[in-house]
Amino acid sequence: MTIHGPGYNRDARVVAFCDFNGTIVDRDILDYLASMTRGYSENAPLPLEREYRGDIARRARALSFDRDEAERRLEAGIRFDDSFPDFSRACADAGVALVVLTSGIQELVERYLARRGVNLPVVGNSAEFRSDGWRIHFRDDSLAGIDKKSFVESARREGRLTVVLGDDRSDFEAALHADVVYAKTGSELQRYLASQQRRFHAFGRFEEILERWPPSTW
Q: Which of 103, 115, 113, 114 lies closest to 60 in space, CA to CA?
């Protein structure tokens, strides 16, 4: 699977696929934006099938402001792990290709990271920022609109060592197929991997990973 983006090392022996919502920032940005919208309820009936991607679409449809207003709200209310830029630089220094995979809106994630001096390949869903409700355009037919597992499998077929860093169910299948997994402490992903008896490393902030990065076994 072809990946494009700033600074992507196509010759890297190790590829790290990192989630955004709940991993680089403290919560899902669509959920945060929707929670500020009058009349929005997390328990409202879904307009699409009752599943993860349907919930993403429902949250997006609750939003009617433009991209600039969305970014102002994100800056005011989302907490960024400020040790992530150091992790990004450490990956580059070690020759590790770092890619952000998100079930959220690719453009918002790219711009959010760029404002913090982090320029990385980001792969996610796209959106129309419409005044009658945002419309999500999913990349594929998978649970979250982006099949993260397929990126891991593609990298492994190329003979690369794969790393997954994440926190929720959009990361489940990718984590099961990766060589190394980092799961946010207390997350859905941590509980799932424990139930599957799958080995993983728990972390709260990226600075904790940096204490032993890259692993000497690589």
A: 103
Q: What confidence tens digit (pLDDT) does each residue in 49-60 have?
A: 447 788 899 899
Contact 133, 155 (CB under 8 A): no
Q: How far is CA 95 from CA 12, 89, 109, 189, 214, in A?
A: 6, 10, 23, 27, 10
Q: CB-based contacts of 142: which residues, under 8 Å, 6+ apart?
A: 53
Crossing angle for the helix pair 106-114 and 67-77, to the nearest 10 degrees: 60
Which is more confidently placed, 185 or 37? 185
Provide CB contacts within 8 A for 84, sequence distance 6+. Answer: 24, 118, 206
Please give the Cα distance from 96 to 108 (Å, whole number): 24
Enumerate domains of the chain plus CATH numbers.
14-210 (3.40.50.1000)
pLDDT 10s digits, 125-179: 999 999 999 999 999 999 889 999 999 999 999 999 999 999 999 999 999 999 9
> Are the C-beta atoms of 161 and 14 separated by less than 8 Å?
yes
Statement: the pTM of the whole predicted model exceeds 0.85: yes
Terminal C-alpha separation, the chain: 23
Residue 41: pLDDT over 70: no
**Phi, psi (rounded to 5 degrees) for 145:** 85, -5
